[in-house]
Design goal:
By secondary structure, the chain is α+β, with helices and mostly antiparallel strands. The chain has one domain: Thiol Ester Dehydrase, Chain A. Helix content is 21%, strand content 32%. The chain contains 3 helices and 7 strands. Strands 1, 2, 3, 4, 5, 6 and 7 form a 7-stranded antiparallel sheet that branches. The model has no long low-confidence stretch (mean pLDDT 93).
């Protein structure tokens, strides 16, 4: 058995809509690597963030839309399985998928492919909702997320 997690960490129920997906290409910059030209491990989380930020733009939940709705999405979990290194000047592809959740949370599965199409790392992110100004955790889905889920379930978000 592989030591790497292979299966989706999120439970998919019958009737749940398919995950919303986004893919981004990015060239590894000098500032993202160590002295050996290998991507520093902390930058993988930043690559994950770029992909989920783009996905948020495509589904109507960008950072500015969240801010306008007095919402924050603090991190609840971040998990990364490193498989093979990424290198300076390599063109990489970060893929993010948002999974359906009935709760007041965002569940992302993310992977990064190297320039040869090999999986360099996989992981997931779970974010909760909080009121931006009061910083109180929201245990009920806010209207912005409910509207997104309505559009998602009705197929209005299409292939993001």
């Amino acid at each position: 058995m592989s030591r790497y997690r292979q299966k989706c960490p999120f439970k998919i129920e019958p009737g749940d809509p398919a995950p919303l997906r986004c893919s981004l290409k990015h060239r590894v910059y000098f500032s993202e690597t160590d002295a050996l030209g290998i991507v520093w491990h902390g930058n993988y989380a930043a690559y994950f963030e770029r992909a989920i930020t783009e996905l948020g733009h495509r589904i109507g939940m960008s950072a500015s839309q969240l801010k306008d709705a007095d919402l924050a999405t603090p991190l609840a979990q971040l998990h990364i399985d490193y498989r093979i290194p990424l290198y300076l000047d390599e063109e990489i592809t970060t893929q993010a998928a948002l999974y359906w959740s009935e709760g007041a949370m965002l569940q992302y599965e993310v992977s990064i492919l190297n320039s040869r199409g090999q999986t360099a790392c996989t992981g997931y992110i779970i974010q909760m909702f909080a009121a931006l100004h009061s910083r109180e955790t929201l245990w009920v889905s806010p209207p912005l997320w409910e509207n997104c889920k309505k559009n998602w379930k009705e197929g209005k978000l299409g292939n993001v």
